[in-house]
Write a structure and sequence with these properties.
This protein is mainly α and about 100 residues long. It contains one helix and no strands. The protein has one helix at about 1-104. The protein starts with a helix and ends with a helix. The mean pLDDT is about 95.
Length: about 100
Amino acid sequence: MEQQEEELACMEQRQEELACMEQQEEELACMEQRQEELACMEQRQEELACMEQQEEELACMEQQEEELACMEQRQEELACMEQQEEELACMEQQVLACMEQQEV
């Protein structure tokens, strides 16, 4: 009888240990899930940082496009001014030629 009680006590202790181990397994599984969620969040942060950098690069490219458009407009204005200078020089020659004819 005493041996049966000891065996029963031993079995109860093993059940408690088993229950404890099962709880530890559940806690471990929970911790692993949290680690996965954390890794996922870190990846999302990296993706967000990458997207922010791409936005900055895009803004930089847009600014460069605006500067290029401005430079092209200035080149057009310069070409227009050069043509006006040529037309003015032509008009000056015509005036000089006309004045020379009047002197003769």
